[in-house]
Amino acid sequence: GSYRPSIEELLRKVSYAFGQRANVIYFSGMGEDGALIANDMARRGSRVWAQSAQTCASAAMPESVISQRICERIASPSDLATLLKALYQTK
Asked: Do 47 and 17 contact (CB within 8 A), yes or no?
């Protein structure tokens, strides 16, 4: 895309640097930014979460990841925040 750095490239670098410790949440957005690397991240053991389409202003980005069937969680931003907080409180 025309954005620099692209989300795809940023996530690729983060994934290579941090492996399964790199996790990602896809929120409302246009296009498919980051969708290609999402599958690679999931295969490497990263958590891939997405905002539910019905809670998005623009659902294209999260839907492009959800359609790959790799998301561990799909929820509203508020619910994702609660889940994330619970995840790190147990560690």
From this structure: no
- The torsion angles phi and psi of 42, rounded to 5 degrees, stand at -60, -40
pLDDT for position 2: 64
Q: How many whole angstroms separate alpha carbon 43 and alpha carbon 31? A: 22
Q: Can you tell me the distance from the alpha carbon of 67 to that of 48, in angstroms, rounded to the nearest whole number?
A: 12
* Positions of the chain with pLDDT under 70: 1-3, 91
Its pTM stands at 0.88
pLDDT, residue 1, reads: 52
Q: Which pair of structure tokens corresponds to residue 69?
A: 């069937």
22, 29, 34, 32 alpha-carbon torsion, rounded to 10°: 160
**Which residue carries 């294209």 as its tokens?**
60
Q: Are 37 and 65 in contact (CB under 8 A)?
A: no
